[in-house]
Design goal:
The complex is a heterotrimer of chains A (about 450), B (about 325) and C (about 650).
Chain A (H helix, E strand, L loop, with lengths): L3 E4 L2 H19 L5 H8 L2 H19 L3 E6 L5 E8 H5 L1 H4 L18 E4 L5 E4 L4 H5 L6 H24 L7 H24 L15 H37 L1 H16 L2 H18 L7 H19 L2 H14 L3 H8 L4 H37 L11 H11 L8 H28 L7
Antiparallel strand pairs in A: 1-2, 2-3, 4-5
Chain B lengths: L1 H29 L2 H13 L5 H10 L16 H4 L2 H6 L16 H36 L4 H14 L3 H15 L15 H31 L2 H8 L4 H24 L8 H7 L4 H11 L2 H29 L1 H4 L2
Chain C lengths: L3 E12 L2 E12 L3 E5 L6 H9 L6 E10 L2 E2 L5 H7 L4 E4 L3 H4 L6 H13 L3 H14 L5 H4 L9 H13 L5 E5 L7 H18 L2 E6 L2 H7 L2 E6 L2 E7 H6 L4 H8 L35 H5 L4 E5 L2 E4 L23 E14 L9 E14 L3 E5 L6 H8 L7 E6 L13 E4 L13 H12 L8 H11 L16 H13 L5 E5 L7 H18 L2 E6 L2 H7 L2 E6 L2 E7 H6 L4 H9 L36 H5 L12 E2 L22
The chains are: A mainly alpha (about 450), B mainly alpha (about 325), C alpha/beta (about 650).
Chain lengths: ~450, ~325, ~650
């Protein structure tokens, strides 16, 4: 009998669909894009960034497999709360909740709270953390864990060097960067695995929630936000860009007009306007979404949709310009001379030759959209306040920095993970651009 | 030239009409005045809202008119006494009506422009200067470790959310070191203390993307044939970079820069709201948080007006900066 | 003998670990022109850049020595370099369009050099720049100083470039393909200018070119480069009359010349540089085992004539005498009747009516089945547009294209003519396999649709164009330029067209590859009976391949008729000018026609050619001549055709036996 019952949230469906389609596309184009991928993996920065991005992707994938856990006893009943595989893995982080703030790796709370002392008298003190009380560890645990994790990392690196160094498929520098990135990730994980359960690696927040947990749970939200919003620019961007560039004439004029109108409204205002409307819609039709989680989920999806339909103009402009060039190329003329239909020319000749530009534009947009999440959430237009996201963490951090003494670790946690994701996405984008368009203009 | 300008101005009209129609559709047809009223009333009284209350709210805020055609009026009133004419077309005459709290939006915009410009203009100029200098420095040291370091630093800077710059800047400069006040504003020259930090933070947040982009523009120019010709004449690298390359590279840089000048009036949403600058950016943030649709609508219109103005300025800048456009 | 100006001593340049220039040695004396001849990738431009110290950053090693007036140029300070560049050595680049700074006035760009190298002040330098412009034959020099490069025609731009390179009074001028981007009449003008300036200033000149004719008309001595190595060096006459290296001999034999023998192509393609042995060994008929093992040393044949070959003195057994099947010309295939193609241009003023670019302005043309017709003219004359009209790729503004035989099938118009494009790199979709590329047209037009027919036919097509059937499963980027052009021809032939329209099919290719493609086209025309309409600016090629030639000028046909007649006795002054301008081996350089073709937007009144014609009379300015048939089988659009003005002294300049 199953101990769990799968649940597919709308955003899960969207996420897996994207992954499936992307995987299929990469497989289908493997022959013609082999050189480009090879170039990507022979660039040290590109190879390392890919490793980091894959790690983030893995976390998001684990967090996109949801289920209801089975409750003990007969008859079979399932828990109402929706949990993900990641929740199960991260269980040790949240197993022991604290009262309030505690600094990273601290053994006591950050603020005094009212408790009772050994004689049952009320005192205000920096109480010992629950987790430390329940699972005491040697005081030098962090140091020992750090040493062990560094050693593991080095071993991973050396093992990788020994395994792949001889194949000679990659330049040495790229292999080095890739293994170094892997080793750093592995040692971070090893460190956390040893410390978690005895200490809070990144401390706890105002309500005593583990900050590392919060930051890790945000990965799925932000990654999904970035991916989905970027990909939703595709249909309009590609369709409008290609038709406008290929056919020209009044169709081009019309699309250019729509494009200029959309563009002339400052991005954030346009998004804000539509989000306001969406909020109104969700508020007035609250009954349709049964749980708070479903509401937050659908809000995330709608948000991505809004960003998709409001920011297709960049892709459209790029593709229009390139299609204008492509349609004057002789192989398009040659196809026309054979009487090949316009639709077929667009699909067989134009679209495949736009592929690299679409890819480049999408990966370049991705990092920007992750950053947009934080800004939108700060403005109250982003993801639901109940959803774990870096935007929400930063939002809370504004007040925490005003405290005295200052509570810095939630912001630091959000900063580190977000910086790692956005930086590797930016480096990846640069490398993809060089790998897929060696002669193109860099921006 | 004048001819060209007239044509560009005429071209702006259909765009603004498009924006006007789009916003009207979004704010009055997707979300009807009834919905807006229900939302506002719902927040005040919780739960159930009566039809009478909705009607009352609509009358109080001037939303009680038909959308496009008013059968109860005569003559031109059929068309003018409608939501579309009153709320949307009126914006072309800079009549934005009243905000939900009853204040006149147009007055509000006029008074808030000043503070926005106080931040935006210095940030824009300083940012442009910084980015150009950094880009030229990177190009000067191209393919050396200095250039690579510069690019790496710029990539890191552009990977940091501007929120971090603002929060971090406020924490360090205002709270920790107490050099400047955390937030607030004072008009006139005495206000420099309030302006300093927001300007610095805006510049810093823009360095990554800006300097990388200018660098790529200059690098593209430096690979062109005319640079080789200049070298074959025996010109010094400095003259080649600062005369030949800069003059060509400045064309795309200037024209895209000119496009954002009008938008400086709008200020910056984040900077202003974090630093308590009573500018238009903060106005928008307040309106968004208070769900004041009338203000948001007006700001959308103003924003696109300024954008279209930017487009026209771009064209003018092109024809001034590039002899190929100017003389042909 | 004048002193040695420039010496190259075993110069070697490595690009990313591969030697692109290998042990090149030669020297140039003052007043002498040394031509460095080679095909693309032979390292000739790299040599020039090395001399100027302008090698790209990718170059990782330079060895050997370069000496200018006895002083070594290796390991110089950048300051010293700068005084040499422009001051002692000037350089003219290939592409006048991109080689001048687009946003600086021409004057300021020339003055920069004058101020730097001659220490002039602003007022002096402006005066001197104007004088320099007058010297290089720029009319209206003072006004031109304040103009920007985009306001000048291609020929004027190249004159500016020359003025610029002369601004520091260099003793050595390096001209890297100075006329390759120019039309043939303008090429003649620029070459004449370079000759004159060289003589006047007693400069040494290094001329980099791929064009044997240009080298012959300019050089005193020449060197042949192959795959980064110099294989032969001699005085001009020795090199062209007594070529000693097999490669040199084959290059000369690959040039199309009237006389109808088959061109000699060089099989295979250039091997990557840096391998042991003679780089030409793989393509040489005289190859011996030791050619693969060691690079031959120099053999001195005569004073100043030396060659690097193991087989000196031996000669090939190539089929010089092999003739081609005569072309069988059939009935009328297609008639083009009074076709006009006008492109509207963007309006300058709001109230102005649309301006028109009259690319083709009233052309009549008849093509016969199996006939090869050449469409000749300079850039912008409308020849490509006309070809595209015939191929069905360009809609006409007026007039009609009438095909004689009815063809069956749904796409009947498309099967009549197929096109082969100029650039083999843009004419094949990089994302499609060769079999997909070739069968695309067959699918669209339903050719050979029965099962089991298409596959063998694809293989037969590959064989017909001289490629292996295995090529079908590869992608375009795996082929060289010449092979790509073969694939493009196979694709066109796949749908069995009656006419092959070729737009400059060989102008993007090297001479040795060009010969192979020309032979292939001739075979297709003669053996398969497919008609050819080919557009070219290369008159010798037209004369070689075609039975009939049409000369176009600014949208109109000015002369048409049998190729022998026109090549021997041109009737239109423009045709004459064109023929005169082609630099050919053995032909002395004449006085080139002046000016450049006007824009087709506002062509001159009357006869379009009158502003450049030295025989123009008032009637030429006012009335446009019509096409007339003078009775010898040709048509000419001229008020005073050359053959019919016997008093004109210019008629018998041309020997009938060209």
């Amino acid at each position: 009998m199953m101990g769990w019952q799968p649940v597919v949230l709308w955003s899960d469906a969207a996420f897996w669909l994207i992954l499936g389609l992307t995987g299929m596309l990469i497989w289908r184009t493997r022959a013609s894009a082999r050189d480009a991928w090879g170039r990507l993996f022979s660039m040290p920065a590109g190879a390392a960034a890919t490793v980091v991005l894959l790690a983030f992707l893995a976390v998001a994938m684990l967090d996109s497999m949801h289920f209801h856990a089975r409750l003990p006893g007969v008859p079979v009943r399932y828990d109402v709360t929706v949990r993900s595989v990641l929740d199960v893995i991260l269980q040790p982080l949240v197993a022991v909740p604290e009262k309030t703030y505690s600094a990273p790796l601290a053994s006591r709370l950050f603020t005094r709270i009212q408790t009772t002392d050994a004689h049952g008298l009320p005192v205000r003190e920096f109480a010992m953390l629950n987790i430390v009380r329940l699972h005491p560890a040697r005081p030098d645990l962090p140091v020992r864990a750090a040493l062990r994790s560094v050693l593991t990392g080095m071993m991973v690196f050396l093992a990788g060097w020994w395994l792949f160094g001889r194949t000679g498929k990659q330049p040495v520098s790229a292999l080095f960067a890739m293994l170094a990135a892997t080793a750093v990730l592995v040692s971070a994980v090893v460190f956390c695995v040893q410390v978690v359960g005895h200490l809070h690696v990144l401390g706890t927040d105002k309500v005593g929630q583990d900050v590392l947990y919060e930051a890790l749970k945000s990965i799925r939200t932000d990654l999904l936000f970035g991916l989905l919003a970027t990909l939703l620019t595709l249909p309009l961007g590609v369709a409008f860009g290609m038709t406008s560039g290929y056919f020209g004439g009044w169709l081009d004029d019309l699309i250019q007009y729509v494009y200029t109108v959309m563009n002339s409204i400052p991005d954030i205002l346009l998004i804000a306007a539509v989000v306001l409307l969406m909020q109104g819609y969700i508020e007035t039709h609250a009954a349709r979404f049964d749980t708070a989680a479903a509401r937050a989920d659908i809000r995330l999806l709608l948000l991505c949709l809004i960003l998709g339909v409001t920011s297709w103009t960049g892709l459209c402009r790029v593709l229009r310009a390139e299609t204008l060039k492509l349609r004057e190329l002789d192989y398009v003329h040659a196809a026309r001379a054979f009487g090949v239909s316009h639709a077929r020319v667009l699909i067989r000749h134009i679209l495949p030759n736009l592929g690299h530009l679409i890819l480049i534009t999408l990966v370049m947009d991705f990092s920007g959209l992750v950053l947009t999440e934080a800004v939108l959430t700060y403005l109250g237009l982003g993801v639901d306040a109940s959803m774990a996201s870096w935007g929400n963490m930063i939002n809370a951090a504004e007040l925490e920095l005003a405290r005295d003494p200052v509570v810095w670790w939630p912001l630091a946690g959000a900063f580190c993970l977000m910086f790692a994701l956005v930086l590797s996405a930016n480096i990846f984008a640069d490398s993809v651009q060089i790998a897929f368009d060696p002669l193109g203009r860099r921006a | 030239m004048i001819n060209y300008l007239v044509r560009r101005l005429l071209y702006a009209v259909p765009i603004l009409i498009g924006v006007n129609l789009l916003t009207f559709w979004l704010f009055f047809m997707v979300n009807t005045p009834d919905d807006i009223a229900r939302m506002h009333l719902g927040r005040q009284h919780q739960k159930h809202v009566s039809m009478a209350a909705i009607q009352q709210w609509k009358i109080a805020h001037g939303y009680d008119l038909p959308i496009f055609y008013n059968p109860s009026r005569n003559g031109i009133g059929h068309l003018t006494d409608t939501l579309f004419a009153e709320k949307s077309l009126a914006m072309f005459a800079m009549d934005f009506g009243a905000a939900d709290d009853g204040s006149d939006i147009a007055t509000e915009i006029r008074t808030r422009m000043g503070p926005s410009l106080m931040i935006a203009v210095p940030a824009f100029l300083l940012g442009l200067w910084t980015n150009l200098s950094l880009a030229l420095m990177m190009v000067w040291f191209r393919t050396s470790w200095q250039d690579r370091l510069g690019v790496a630093a710029a990539t890191m800077l552009m990977s940091i959310s501007s929120l971090f710059f603002i929060i971090g800047g406020q924490y360090l400069f205002a709270r920790e070191w107490c050099w400047v006040p955390v937030s607030g504003f004072e008009p006139g020259l005495d206000g420099w203390r309030f302006v300093l930090l927001p300007v610095l933070v805006s510049v810093l947040a823009g360095i990554g993307r800006g300097s990388r982009w200018y660098r790529s523009v200059f690098l593209e120019e430096i690979g062109k044939d005319y640079v080789r010709t200049a070298r074959s004449k025996g010109l010094s690298e400095a003259r080649i970079l600062f005369v030949h390359v800069l003059r060509n590279g400045l064309i795309p840089v200037l024209t895209t820069t000119v496009a954002v000048i009008p938008l400086l009036f709008m200020g910056s949403l984040l900077t202003e709201s974090f630093f308590g600058i009573p500018g238009l950016g903060a106005y928008v943030v307040e309106a968004l948080q208070g769900e004041d649709f009338a203000v948001v609508r007006s700001m959308v219109f103003i924003g696109s007006l300024l954008y279209v103005l930017g487009l026209i300025l771009t064209d003018i800048a092109y024809s001034v900066a590039d002899p190929r456009v100017r003389l042909s | 003998m004048s002193p040695t100006l420039l010496e190259l001593d075993r110069l070697t340049v490595q690009l990313a670990g591969v030697p692109v220039v290998q042990e090149i040695s030669f020297d140039i004396r003052a007043g002498e022109t040394f031509a460095l001849l080679g095909e693309s990738g032979s390292g000739k431009s790299m040599t020039a850049l090395a001399i100027m110290g302008l090698l790209p950053a990718l170059v990782d090693a330079v060895s050997g020595d370069i000496r200018l007036q006895g002083k070594s140029l290796m390991h110089l300070d950048s300051d010293v370099w700068r005084s040499l560049r422009g001051g002692h050595m000037g350089m003219v680049f290939q592409e006048p369009m991109t080689s001048l700074n687009p946003v600086m006035t021409v004057g300021s760009q020339i003055e920069e050099g004058l101020r730097l190298h001659r220490g002039m002040r602003r007022v002096q330098s402006r005066q001197a720049a104007a004088e320099l412009l007058e010297q290089v034959g720029v009319p209206d020099a003072w006004r031109r100083l304040d103009e920007f490069p985009f306001q000048l025609s291609g020929g004027l731009k190249q004159r500016m470039m020359i003025a610029l390179s002369l601004s520091g009074n260099p003793q050595l001028l390096i001209a890297d393909e100075p006329t390759t981007a120019l039309d043939v009449t303008v090429q003649a003008q620029v070459l004449a200018l370079l000759r004159e300036e060289q003589r006047r200033r007693d400069m040494g000149m290094l001329l980099i070119t791929h064009d044997l004719g240009v080298a012959w008309s300019m050089a005193t001595r020449a060197g042949i480069l192959y795959a980064g190595r110099m294989v032969e060096e001699a005085s001009r006459d020795d090199l062209f009359v007594r070529p000693a290296h097999p490669y040199t001999r084959k290059l000369l034999a690959a040039l199309p010349q009237p006389g109808r023998q088959r061109l000699v192509g060089i099989p295979g393609s250039v091997l990557p540089a840096g391998q042991p042995g003679c780089p030409f060994a793989g393509r040489c008929e005289l190859v011996m085992p030791r050619c693969h093992a060691e690079m031959p040393d120099w053999t001195v044949l005569a004073d100043g004539h030396r060659v690097r070959c193991h087989a000196v003195g031996m000669s090939e057994k190539w089929q010089v005498a092999q003739t081609m099947t005569p072309a069988v010309v059939g009935d009328v295939l297609v008639e083009v009747r009074d076709v006009r193609v006008h492109f509207p241009l963007r309006k300058q003023r709001f109230w102005q009516s649309d301006r028109l670019l009259k690319a083709v302005d009233g052309v009549d043309l008849t093509l016969h089945a199996g006939e090869a017709v050449a469409l000749v003219g300079e850039s912008g004359c409308g020849k490509t547009t006309l070809a595209r009209v015939v191929a069905g790729l360009q809609t006409v503004t007026a007039g009609e294209v009438v095909w004689a035989q009815p063809f069956s099938g749904a796409h009947k118009n498309l099967r009549r003519a197929q096109m082969v494009f100029q650039d083999p790199f843009s004419s094949l979709d990089p994302r499609m396999r060769i079999d997909q590329l070739i069968s695309e047209g067959m699918q669209a037009l339903d050719v050979d649709a029965q099962t089991g027919v298409r596959e063998p036919r694809l293989q037969a097509l590959m064989q017909q164009v001289g490629l292996s059937p295995e090529s079908l499963s590869r992608y375009p980027h795996q082929f060289s330029g010449g092979q790509r052009q073969r694939i493009a021809i196979a694709r066109a032939l796949a749908v069995r067209p009656a006419l092959l329209v070729c737009d400059e099919p060989t102008s993007a290719l090297d001479v040795s590859v060009q010969a192979q493609i020309v032979n292939l086209l001739a075979d297709i025309q003669r053996d398969a009976g497919v008609g050819l309409l080919f557009v070219t600016h290369n008159l010798p090629l037209a004369a070689y391949l075609a039975q009939r030639v049409l000369v176009m000028y600014l949208g109109r046909i000015v002369e048409s008729g049998p190729v022998d007649l026109i090549a021997a006795r041109p009737a239109h002054p423009y045709t004459r000018a064109l023929l005169d301008a082609v630099p050919e081996i053995g032909k002395p350089a004449g006085t080139p026609v002046t000016g450049e073709a006007a824009s087709a937007v506002d062509p001159p009144t009357g006869c379009h050619f009158h502003p450049r014609c030295n025989m123009a009379k008032p009637v030429c300015r006012s009335d446009a001549p019509v096409l007339r048939d003078p009775g010898d089988g040709r048509q000419v659009r001229c008020h005073f055709p050359l053959s019919f003005t016997p008093a004109d002294q210019s008629v018998d300049i041309h020997p009938v036996n060209r």
